[in-house]
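Justification of computing resources. Each target in the renewal requires a structure prediction run like the one illustrated here; the chain below, 277 residues long, is used simply to show the kind of job we budget for.
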Amino acid sequence: MKLSICTISFRHHLHSLDQIAHWAQANSFQGIELWGIHAKNLADEPHYGADWLNAYGLETSMISDYLPLEVSECDLLTETKKLSQLAKHWGTKKIRTFVGKKGSAQTTKRERDKLVEKLHLICEFLYAEGQSVLVETHPNTLADNLASTIQLLEETNHPALRINFDVLHVWESGINPIEAMNQLGPYVSHFHFKNIASRSQLDVFSPNNVYAAAGSRKGMVPLFEGAVSYQDFLEELIPTMDVNASLEWFGPNVKEVLVKDRKQIHAIMESLKVRGN
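Resulting structure tokens:
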């Protein structure tokens, strides 16, 4: 398994990317998932990139952004090209995005058809560049439940379309993540791992709250202390595929929580090795 930290976890901290990379290396992570706005803001400092990060023994696992599918095709392609170039500079083939700004049940067929058309356009461009677009499983998007996510894959019908499997949000939709993986597994290229104390507190992850410096963090808990059973999920997942995942922590005590979660995941991996022998 390759584990990454997310630069979004440090969005309200006065840490340089140098400090974050040094810390990630010292604490046995393999990669960094770069928030799109961070990648864009670093574009004027080209010495930061794949070679620089590789010197720490790290790789860029993914650039996580929000491609504007609601704009014209011309404007969308302009943004996609910029993001593609940034991904190349950072040495990753994976670009994460959301599809739509409301739930699948609230999206009309005409709206859905337009979103699929735009998504296919992105796929065509990125495929030619040897890259993929990863649609995240997330509330208030077309990938807010298993059936709609599978439908989206079928409608777009393109090899450049992949899934960023957010375990918590799949669980939030009402399905067991293990069951969802049984169906989505062949399309999954990355995972987001995070947890919540109880289902009643899921609103803490709504964008208006989670990105706000003064937003509530109540209910955000370390990976193995929440309502989603990551022990069960990882024991099922790890033996079946090469896992690339990011610890997506939005709460306080960032470094302490990330190290704790990484160590517990490592312990599960070691336990599975022993059982395998």
